[in-house]
């Protein structure tokens, strides 16, 4: 959402003057010299049906449609229309309802719409005179006095000018920074003491450095602590890093174990509760609430995605459908028949669902689905645009990893610009992966996380291998917890071709630049005469397919060129038949390494 | 009168041609004629079939990427210069030909398929051992 654009949704029942009020808002903004766009009336305009209209204004407004869940102000003229329309409000957005005015004082009942504009006018930085002029222009002479009076009533109503009100559980997201740092330091000292007392490997490493938990006096002392890496979890498999006795552990999860032994992670009841709270904060940041129906298509089981999202969604009070991953046709049937409003899965799996929906003649745009909470694999801004255009939902990026807690480490908010780390529980650092020194704010590096409250398995300075950077500007959503840029790549997903680092996400971005390519692709790495060769295999779609050899060769050339522009290397592109590249239901496997090393 | 032609994307590897043909066979759709264009990596199978709408559905269900194109079928005298006269007209009109292929009208109750094999001698040996009737150039001319 562009912060310089204000999104207002005016809603109510037919006959309440909803379109009239929306027109006045638009006219007022226009009179104030702003660029304004107003959508057509949605819904049945006959008396009694639900209706709404979107108004957007700012320095420059391109689309008249308020994005789903993106309204800054929701003005509802009928009490029974409040809940129906609430999903349109962004988290922290302001609701204006009939209860905000004393209806008994209205000159006549029909002027409620104008009284509500009076309430709205107090929230917006637009001069009162513009409102008065617009109202005056909208009514014939004989109705002007009554509407003027209604506007005055609303404008002088007791309703306070409300700042963005967060969900109660999201309050830590908005904590004053000083308070946040103090909380972090207290928790850091506790967790270091706990790990030192209970985890042999950590104690050894502290002793080697001649460090004691009491030496941690400030957040800057974090840098004196030893790192933890994935190999440590493998070396101590299965229970070696636990800081709680097994009788206090209520849950174990494990990684898929693509290389060697899996890694095992543990939770006490308190850990499970924290996990649910950070996932709740994730959902709240994505604009979800208790009346949402959430289809949780993350895999249930040893993978943390399924249960992590499940507990958070239940804590939110939403309706959870624990469908888990796989069985695409059933997913679509449930999405359609159960009136699903939000889905959790990997972004590549959602694209797969969209593909299949099309094949089955289901138009996802016609369904009530409005939000996607996507994570567990890196994806790109282009992919988000494709998802949002193909399904008319808001697609949010979330981040997490089992070693830290699972999903719920960081999440986007309504601004869809960077992910807020829930840093009262997860203390972030960004380091140079070579020198291991912290990088300057805003510079790219490897994300390192310290769990501040995890009891069963504290992770001190865990190297995530994920590459990102801090966003230094404050977020328009008002959250004070720090933001990181979306994780585009992992330092260990990297392929080196002729000395150039190539990441799957770069290939994805390059493919998406070529019109019509959906990102079903894979990278095949081979070694010919001691040289690593990369072949990018791209599935041909009906949009891409030309029935002339020349057309297909042209397409190949375009793809090669696009990849070269983004990565700096020329790689081979092979067009392959549709559905020949394996689909992921968990993490997408993008790199097939066929090198005999 | 334009004719609907279906084009199918194929990867250039063994077995790729069989799948679409098998799908059509199973659906009982007869192929009137076909042409195969190929590069080192991929190929395009162009088909003219009895019921193109049904065939398109069948092929898509079989997982093929299918494109519908309109082509013109021109009847020419089946004698020397028959095609040359058409091409002369095309040239004079400044028309551009993207691609073309040919087949003869069915006079006998058998079709004629034309293959190019990478190793024609080996293919010839195999097909002869299998008892396939291989038409000599002279015979092919005689059929026309």
Task: Summarize it.
By secondary structure, chain A is of the alpha/beta class. Chain A has 15 helices and 27 strands. Chain B is globular and about 45 Å long.
Describe the structure.
The complex is a heterodimer of chains A (597) and B (144). Chain A is α/β, with parallel strands linked by helices. Chain A is 31% helix and 23% strand. Chain A folds into 3 domains: 161 residues, Pyruvate-ferredoxin Oxidoreductase, domain 3, CATH 3.40.920; 233 residues, Rossmann fold (3-Layer(aba) Sandwich); 99 residues, ANL, C-terminal domain (GMP Synthetase, Chain A, domain 3). In chain A, the strands form 6 sheets. Chain A has a 9-stranded mixed beta sheet with strand order 10-9-11-12-13-14-15-20-19, sandwiched between helices. In chain A, strands 1, 2, 3, 4, 5 and 6 form a 6-stranded mixed beta sheet that branches. Chain A has a 4-stranded antiparallel beta sheet with strand order 16-17-18-21. In chain A, helix 3 crosses helix 5, helix 6 crosses helix 7 and helix 12 packs parallel to helix 13. The longest helix of chain A is centred in the first third of the chain and has 22 residues. The mean pLDDT of chain A is 87. Chain B has a 4-stranded antiparallel beta sheet with strand order 2-3-1-4, covered by helices on one side. With 144 residues, chain B is α+β, with helices and mostly antiparallel strands. In chain B, 33% of the residues lie in helices and 23% in strands. In chain B, 15% of the residues are buried. Chain B starts with a strand and ends with a helix. The radius of gyration of chain B is 17 Å and the shape is globular. In chain B, a hairpin with a 3-residue loop joins strand 2 and strand 3. Chain B has 2 domains: 75 residues, 2-Layer Sandwich (VC0802-like), CATH 3.30.2130.10; 41 residues, no CATH class. Classes of the chains: A alpha/beta (597), B alpha+beta (144). Chains A and B meet through helix 15 and strand 26 of A and strand 1, strand 3 and strand 4 of B.
């Amino acid at each position: 959402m562009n912060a310089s654009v204000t999104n207002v949704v005016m809603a109510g029942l037919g006959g309440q003057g909803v379109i009239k009020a929306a027109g006045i808002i638009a006219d007022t903004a226009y009179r104030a010299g702003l660029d304004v766009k107003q959508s057509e009336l949605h819904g049945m305009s006959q008396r009694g049906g639900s209706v709404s209209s979107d108004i957007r204004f700012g320095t420059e407004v391109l689309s008249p449609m308020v994005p789903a869940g993106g309204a800054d102000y929701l003005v509802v003229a009928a009490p029974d229309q409040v809940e129906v329309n609430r999903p349109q409000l962004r988290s922290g957005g302001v609701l204006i309802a009939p209860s905000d005015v004393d209806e008994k004082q209205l000159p006549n009942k029909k002027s409620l719409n104008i009284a509500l504009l009076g309430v709205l006018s107090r929230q917006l930085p637009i001069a009162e005179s513009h409102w008065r002029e617009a109202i005056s222009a909208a009514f014939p002479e004989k109705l002007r006095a009554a509407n003027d009076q209604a506007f005055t009533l609303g404008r002088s109503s007791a309703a306070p000018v409300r700042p963005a009100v967060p969900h109660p559980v999201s309050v830590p997201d908005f904590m004053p920074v000083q308070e946040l740092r103090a909380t972090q330091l207290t928790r850091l000292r506790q967790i270091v003491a706990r790990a030192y007392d209970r985890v042999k490997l950590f104690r050894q490493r502290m002793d080697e450095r001649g460090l004691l938990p009491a030496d941690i006096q400030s957040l800057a002392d974090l840098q004196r602590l030893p790192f933890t890496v994935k190999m440590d979890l493998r070396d101590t498999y299965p229970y070696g890093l636990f800081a709680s006795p097994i009788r206090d552990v209520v849950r174990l999860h494990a990684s898929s174990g693509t290389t060697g032994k899996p890694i095992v992670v543990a939770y006490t009841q308190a850990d499970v509760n924290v996990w649910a709270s950070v996932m709740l904060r994730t959902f709240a940041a994505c604009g979800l609430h208790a009346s949402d129906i959430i289809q949780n298509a993350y895999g249930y089981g040893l993978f943390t995605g399924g249960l992590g999202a499940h507990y958070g969604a239940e804590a939110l009070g939403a309706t959870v459908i624990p469908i888990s991953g796989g069985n695409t046709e059933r997913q679509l049937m449930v999405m359609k028949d159960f009136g699903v409003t939000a889905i959790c899965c990997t972004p590549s799996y959602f694209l797969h669902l969209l593909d299949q929906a099309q094949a089955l003649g289901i138009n996802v745009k016609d369904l009530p689905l409005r939000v996607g909470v996507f994570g567990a694999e890196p994806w790109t801004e282009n992919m988000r645009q494709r998802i949002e255009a193909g399904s008319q939902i808001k697609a949010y990026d979330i981040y997490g990893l089992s070693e830290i807690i699972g999903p719920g480490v960081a999440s986007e908010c309504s601004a869809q610009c960077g992910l807020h780390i829930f840093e009262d529980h997860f203390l972030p650092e960004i380091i140079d992966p070579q020198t291991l020194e912290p990088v300057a704010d805003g510079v790219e590096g490897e994300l390192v996380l310290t769990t501040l409250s995890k009891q069963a398995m504290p992770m001190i300075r865990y190297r995530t291998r994920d590459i990102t950077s801090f966003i230094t500007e404050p977020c328009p959503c008002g959250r004070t917890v720090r933001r990181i840029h979306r994780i585009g790549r992992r330092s260990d997903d990297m392929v080196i071709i002729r000395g150039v680092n190539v990441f799957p996400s770069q290939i994805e971005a390059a493919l998406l630049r070529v019109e019509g390519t959906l990102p079903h692709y894979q990278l095949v790495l081979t070694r010919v005469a001691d040289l690593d060769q990369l072949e990018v295999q791209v599935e041909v779609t009906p949009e891409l397919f030309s029935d002339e050899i020349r057309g297909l060769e042209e397409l190949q050339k375009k793809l090669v060129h696009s990849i070269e522009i983004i990565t700096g290397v020329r790689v081979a592109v092979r067009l392959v038949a549709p559905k020949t590249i394996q689909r992921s239901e968990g993490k997408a496997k993008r790199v097939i390494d066929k090198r005999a090393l | 009168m334009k004719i609907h032609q279906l084009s199918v994307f194929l990867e250039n590897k063994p077995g790729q041609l069989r799948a679409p043909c098998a799908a059509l066979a199973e659906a009982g759709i007869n192929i009137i004629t076909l042409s195969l264009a190929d590069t080192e990596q991929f190929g395009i199978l162009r088909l003219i079939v009895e019921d193109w709408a049904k065939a398109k559905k069948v092929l898509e269900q079989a997982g093929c990427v299918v494109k519908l194109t309109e082509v013109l079928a021109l009847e020419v005298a089946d004698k020397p210069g028959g095609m040359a006269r058409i091409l002369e007209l095309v040239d004079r009109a400044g028309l551009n030909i993207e691609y073309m292929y040919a087949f003869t009208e069915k006079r006998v109750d058998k079709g004629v398929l034309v293959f190019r094999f990478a190793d024609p001698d080996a293919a010839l040996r195999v097909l002869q051992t299998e008892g396939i009737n291989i038409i000599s150039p002279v015979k092919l001319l005689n059929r026309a």
